[in-house]
């Protein structure tokens, strides 16, 4: 197992040892774990990473429901200044065993897969599910893809963002200090 495959924190659930009433999985990441999460997400820092999941058995697999709360700092996409963000995401995911070869559809037969279904299950191989990957994925999807400070824009920095495309010769004339409209 490589360093990349090693989970950042322990959130492994064994399906064969899961009580019929389910169990709770609580994660409160330590400082070292939060630093590893920030590095994995390619963000400046993670100040808080807390998750509470209820895991119950479901059709030879499991269902994980709960909430992830995180406080992170990313670099602004405009000025690269630190931008703090709070992420609160609800989690509801189903993990089912992958179909066995005996249950696999016949070659050439049609298989209907509804990709719009919200309850599309994740397939698992083996007796355990690592929920750390689910939590990291949930955080990644909850992050603002274009973080900016309030009121920050390219126009405020004095950068031209005009709709009309300027010719390379007009740009060169402007760099030389000439008026491109008089040429």
Automatic annotation (TrEMBL):
**InterPro entries, A to Z:** YceD (IPR003772)
Superkingdom of the source species: Bacteria
What protein name does the entry list?
Answer: DUF177 domain-containing protein
Give the species: Devosia aurantiaca
């Amino acid at each position: 197992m490589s360093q990349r495959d090693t989970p950042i924190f322990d959130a492994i659930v064994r399906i064969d040892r899961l009580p019929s009433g389910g169990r709770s999985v609580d994660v409160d990441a330590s400082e070292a774990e939060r630093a590893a999460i920030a590095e994995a997400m390619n963000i400046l820092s993670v100040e808080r990473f807390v998750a509470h999941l209820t895991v119950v058995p479901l059709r030879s697999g499991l269902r994980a429901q709960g909430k992830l709360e995180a406080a992170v700092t990313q670099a602004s996409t405009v000025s690269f200044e630190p931008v703090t963000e709070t992420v609160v995401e609800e989690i509801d995911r189903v993990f089912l065993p992958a179909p066995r070869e005996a249950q696999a559809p016949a070659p050439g037969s049609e298989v209907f897969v509804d990709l719009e279904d919200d309850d599309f299950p994740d397939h698992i191989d083996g007796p355990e599910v690592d929920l750390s990957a689910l939590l990291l994925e949930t955080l990644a999807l909850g992050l603002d893809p274009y973080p900016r400070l309030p009121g920050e824009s390219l126009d405020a920095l004095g950068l031209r963002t005009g709709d009309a495309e300027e010719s390379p010769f007009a740009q060169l004339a402007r760099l030389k200090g000439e008026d491109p409209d008089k040429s």
